[in-house]
Amino acid sequence: MAAPVEFWFDFYSPYGYLASLQIDEIAARHGRATVWRPFLLGPIFQRQGLAPLVEIPLLGDYARHDFARSARLIGAPFRLPSAFPKAGLAPARAFYWLAERDEAKARALARAVFRAVFVEDRDGADPAVVAELAAPLGIERDELLAAVARPEIKERVKAATAEAMARGVCGSPFFFVDGEPFWGNDRLWQVERWLETGGW
Q: What keywords sit in the KW lines (predicted)?
């Protein structure tokens, strides 16, 4: 089988949210699976000497406009969180912990967190909120809260972020298709063309 499409994202990335609504379907149209890989943008921004997009003069105003416009284009609900940006440590830790047990539930939780953050304006960085979102998936609240506090789970997110940086991931979302890197929700059409043609 062909290698899966890697989808790297930060839970507080608006474009990561929009990509999460599309990438599985795009990959499936071409007989590919996907691998979801949350990481933290903060350390990558620091390494590049960058501020979060919305905090950059001029570009920040444009980005706010483009987030909403990009969401309308695909018919997705969107609301920029009132507290933004934040570090999505808790959901990333919960994802990796849950993925070791049940990949489908981990993705379902990721989607629930994205919706909570970018549609419902809830605090997806709060472990208690993540635990609440996991409850409908049959995940015990106390078990999840204990898991996200474990050193090995914390290290898992650090390692994922370090791997992302080492592989040249410079923003969210970021995709690898057969090793070829693509950065940004606006590159999804290129991802699909690459899958169609095998590259150029």
A: Isomerase
